[in-house]
Amino acid sequence: MANESELNFEAAMAALEEIVGQLEHGDVPLEQAIDLFQRGMKLSQLCSQKLEQVERKIEMIVEEDGDLRKKPFGGGLDENGGEVLE
């Protein structure tokens, strides 16, 4: 298997789902379960990092005063997800 940091999001999620499935069955020895859990946590962090990277790249095009401009994804939202009016 490739180095975990080299996995794309989909491959990391698939590996994480496989680990979760193995742990849910509960028929793995304790030491192996601990190893699987640790690997799962690393994969979870990797997926989270990749999602954050993608979120930073996404830009929304908004129309404001007749002009189109780019705005960072989620940049104008309050804590409830509503648009912040300036």
UniProtKB/TrEMBL annotation:
It comes from the Bacteria. Its EC number is 3.1.11.6. It catalyses: Exonucleolytic cleavage in either 5'- to 3'- or 3'- to 5'-direction to yield nucleoside 5'-phosphates. It is found in: Cytoplasm. SUPFAM superfamilies: XseB-like. Keywords: Cytoplasm, Exonuclease, Hydrolase, Nuclease. Signal peptide: none annotated. Its main location: cytoplasm. GO terms for molecular function: exodeoxyribonuclease VII activity. It is an enzyme of class 3 (hydrolase). Bidirectionally degrades single-stranded DNA into large acid-insoluble oligonucleotides, which are then degraded further into small acid-soluble oligonucleotides. PANTHER family: EXODEOXYRIBONUCLEASE 7 SMALL SUBUNIT. Belongs to the XseB family. Heterooligomer composed of large and small subunits. This is Exodeoxyribonuclease 7 small subunit. The gene is xseB.
